[in-house]
Amino acid sequence: MPQLQSLWSEVNKERDDVVFLCVNIGDEKDVIQKWWDEDGFTLKAMRQDGSAVSNAFGVQYYPTNYLIGPDGKVAWRAVGYDEGAIRKYLGM
C-alpha cells in the first residue's frame, strides 16, 4: 500500500482526471480508518459489504489492480502491484 500511496501522491499533483480507489473486503470500518490515519494515506478507501464489488470485477486474488478508462470500461487489470504498467497507461 505505501507504494500505491506514493504513486498516488505524484499522480494527484499532476492530474485532476485520475482517482485511485482502494476497495477493502473483510475489515471493519474502524480498522480501515485507524490504518489510514496512522499511515497517513490520502488514497480514497471504501469498504464493501460482502463481496459484490469483488465479484462484479472477477477478483480472485489480492491485490488486484484495475485501470478504468474514461468510458467506464476496464482498460487494464493485473494481480499484484505493477507501477510501470500503471505509469505507462497514465502516460507518465
What labels describe this entry?
Glutaredoxin, two-stranded antiparallel ribbon, globular
Care to describe what's here?
The mean pLDDT is 90. A hairpin with a 5-residue loop joins β3 and β4. The two termini are 20 Å apart. The longest helix is centred in the first third of the chain and has 13 residues, at 2-14. This protein has a single domain (2-90), classed as 3-Layer(aba) Sandwich (Glutaredoxin). The protein contains four helices and four strands. Strands 1-2 form a two-stranded parallel ribbon. Strands 3-4 form a two-stranded antiparallel ribbon. Helix content is 41%, strand content 23%. With 92 residues, the chain is an alpha+beta fold. It has helices spanning 2-14, 29-39, 52-57, 83-90; strands spanning 21-25, 44-48, 64-68, 74-79.
Brief rundown of the structure:
This protein is of the alpha+beta class and 92 residues long. The protein is built from four helices and four strands, in the order H-E-H-E-H-E-E-H.
Number of helices: 4
Total strand count, please?
4
Structural class: alpha+beta
The separation of the N and C termini measures 20 Å
Portion of residues within helices: 40-55%
Mean pLDDT: 90
Order of helices and strands: HEHEHEEH
User: What is the CATH T-level topology?
Assistant: Glutaredoxin
* Main sheet strand line-up: 1-2
What topology does this entry show?
Blueprint: H1 2-14, E1 21-25, H2 29-39, E2 44-48, H3 52-57, E3 64-68, E4 74-79, H4 83-90
Parallel strand pairs: 1-2
Antiparallel strand pairs: 3-4
